[in-house]
Design brief:
The protein has 76 residues and is mainly α. It has helices at 3-16, 21-28, 33-36, 45-65. The longest helix is centred in the C-terminal third of the chain and has 21 residues, at 45-65.
């Protein structure tokens, strides 16, 4: 398995799916995609890219959830 092919395809897929480079770099935090989401043995790069993108999106949304402000409480 050539890890670089998986890495390249996953990054391209994530960006094509709407993730900004800055968002991707925030989630990766200096790591490679394959460090966060390991390819499965024999997994085609395109299948890995789709799976890794999904996992990266979940991580991004979970990270942003920590930054959200709760809605105001009380009546009008």
């Amino acid at each position: 398995m050539v890890v670089q092919a998986y890495e390249t395809q996953a990054i391209q897929e994530a960006i094509e799916c709407g993730m900004a480079r800055s968002e991707l770099m925030l989630i990766l935090d200096g790591l490679c995609v394959t460090d966060l989401v390991s390819p499965h043995a024999g997994e085609p790069p395109a299948d890995y890219a789709a799976r890794a993108t999904g996992e990266l999106m979940v991580r991004y949304l979970a990270h942003n959830e920590d930054d959200t402000v709760p809605p105001p409480t009380g009546g009008l």
